[in-house]
Design goal:
Elements: H1 32-60, H2 64-67, H3 71-95, H4 98-124, H5 146-170, E1 175-177, E2 182-184, H6 195-199, H7 201-206, H8 210-223, E3 231-233, H9 234-252, H10 255-268, E4 282-284, E5 290-291, E6 301-302, H11 303-306, H12 310-320, H13 324-338, E7 349-350, E8 361-362, H14 369-381, H15 387-403, E9 405-407, E10 413-415, E11 417-419, E12 422-424, E13 427-428, H16 434-440, H17 450-470, E14 479-480, H18 482-485
Antiparallel strand pairs: 1-2, 3-4, 4-5, 6-7, 8-11, 9-10, 11-12, 13-14
Helix pairs in contact: 4-10, 9-10, 10-12, 12-13, 14-15, 16-17
Pathway: Protein modification; protein glycosylation
Protein name: alpha-1,2-Mannosidase
Coiled coil: 73-100
Length: 487
């Protein structure tokens, strides 16, 4: 049987009949020369089509000069830059000792394994994959000044002493009572344990106390449990546990800290379930039921407490991919900005149900302090893009300077308290942080007031130093009284 051709045009004769090639047929069979001619004709058609396609394509190609403009030119420049950097790194590597090269290879392998493990853990926890960048200068730097090195070594020695004794007498509990040498767990944290461990993570890392950091991390992995049926202080748990876990993650990149931070943040969210979104001070993290301190001006929330959630919750949204955390704290700002503020000042009490101020008591010390601190830090943390936080801070500082800051007859600058329009000429010990806050915010001060803010911070710090220096038993001194301020 003859082979079947791919094209019917080239098929073999079908046999006898009108179209066949047999004797008496109506069509003469094609000879070898005729068959070759047909082949040539088809090949000529195919070749002509190919040439036409090639020449036509030339008119549709982009202009070569345009290939090197815009993004393409940037890509080419980046390729060249990467190539040059690779050459530099290769030269530097060749200049290293074999031991240094082997050490670098080991470190790269460890980092790769850590990144893979982190992505695996993050995926298991339902968290987005994030590229960890170790902060520059957090560790590995040695000061040139020998006096600074000596002081730093002494501070580390004190930290080591504190940590070792906490581990010996109170490991796993929230606090150590240094005189009785007993562990203590404050009810501010409910049944959550290990506040000292979590709060010390960043210090251990920065001081390069690697063994202590490792054992603290292992404790967090195995023992830190937020599934408790207890009432906690939202403020205290936020700054100690949530803040400690976030800072530990940003320093080390260990995924367990991110996972625990997001887990805790989710358990704190019910505190915001109020008519205004201003959170409760106290929360049962199992039932989600919240309330305020009974002594706080008719069931009000406290400015320093609900105002000291912003930094942590903004970072929770970034690390979890869930915008709800940021939305909760941004809503607090919306409520505050809608309210009239007496003389531009922020009273310490705000009712979460009515959205109105409670008692008109203003203090930059206890009950108000860290609200102002978090405003300036939110602006700085945002790479100075949080214009709302910046404006709220500098407007508040202007009102504080106008209505609260006074100078005693003895020449000491202090920040008084304000109650219902009347000044109380006393400055709480907790107000002493304001010296550092004014200096921190000096760089962005409006109207060329940078120097003025630095000077103001130095004056507050001097007043606080004098209070310590002149008080024989400061342990019992809560306020810097007006009698002292007149000295």
């Amino acid at each position: 049987m003859p082979a079947v051709s791919l094209l019917p045009l080239f098929g073999s004769p079908a046999g006898p009949g009108p179209l066949g090639g047999g004797p008496g047929g109506g069509r003469k069979a094609s000879g070898p020369s005729a068959f070759r001619l047909t082949e040539k004709f088809v090949l000529l058609l195919v070749f002509s089509a190919f040439i036409t396609l090639c020449f036509g394509a030339i008119f549709f190609l982009p202009d070569s000069s345009k290939l090197l403009s815009g993004a393409a030119a940037e890509n080419l420049a980046k390729i060249r830059e990467d190539h040059e950097r690779a050459l530099r790194e290769a030269k530097e590597t060749l200049q290293k000792l074999p031991e240094e090269i082997r050490r670098d290879i080991r470190q790269d392998k460890e980092k790769l394994l850590q990144d893979r493990r982190g992505r695996k853990e993050a995926g298991a926890a339902g968290l987005p994959s994030l590229l960890f960048r170790k902060p520059v200068g957090a560790v590995g730097q040695e000061p040139a000044d020998p006096n600074v090195r000596q002081k730093r070594a002494k501070i580390k020695e004190m930290m080591k002493h504190s940590w070792d004794n906490y581990k010996r007498y109170a490991w796993g509990l929230n606090e150590l009572k240094p005189i009785s040498k007993q562990g203590h767990s404050s009810n501010l944290f409910g049944n959550i344990q290990g506040a000292t461990i979590v709060d010390a993570l960043d210090t251990l890392y920065i001081m390069e106390m690697k063994d202590e950091f490792k054992e603290a991390k292992e404790w967090v992995e195995k023992n830190l449990d937020f599934s408790v049926n207890a009432e906690i202080s939202v403020f205290e748990v936020n700054i100690r546990f949530l803040g400690g876990l976030l800072s530990a993650y940003y320093l080390s990149g260990e995924e367990i800290f991110r996972k625990k931070a997001v887990e805790l943040g989710e358990k704190l969210l019910p505190a915001f379930n109020t008519p205004t979104g201003i959170p409760w001070a106290l929360l049962n993290i199992k039932s989600g039921i919240g309330r305020n301190w009974p002594w706080a001006s008719g069931g009000s929330s406290i400015l320093a407490e609900f105002g000291t959630l912003h930094l942590e919750f903004i970072h929770l949204s970034h690390l979890s991919g869930n915008p709800v955390f940021a939305e909760k704290v941004m809503n607090i700002r919306k409520v505050l900005n809608r309210l009239d503020k007496p003389e531009g000042l922020y009273p310490n009490y705000l009712n979460p149900s009515s959205g109105q101020w409670g008692q008109h008591h203003v203090s930059v010390g206890g009950l108000g302090d860290s609200f102002y601190e978090y405003l300036i830090k939110a602006w700085l943390m945002s790479d100075k893009t949080d214009e709302e936080g910046k404006k709220m801070y500098y407007d508040a500082v202007q009102s504080i300077e106008t209505h609260l800051i006074r100078k005693s007859s003895g020449g000491l600058t202090y920040i008084a308290e304000w109650k219902g329009g009347l000044l109380e000429h006393k400055m709480g010990h907790l107000t002493c942080f304001a010296g550092g806050m004014f200096a921190l915010g000096a760089d962005g001060a409006p109207n060329g007031k940078t120097g003025h803010h630095i000077e103001l911070g130095a004056e507050i710090a001097r007043t606080c130093h004098e209070s310590y220096d002149r008080t024989s038993n400061f342990r019992h001194s809560i306020y810097i009284p007006s009698v002292f301020l007149s000295m």
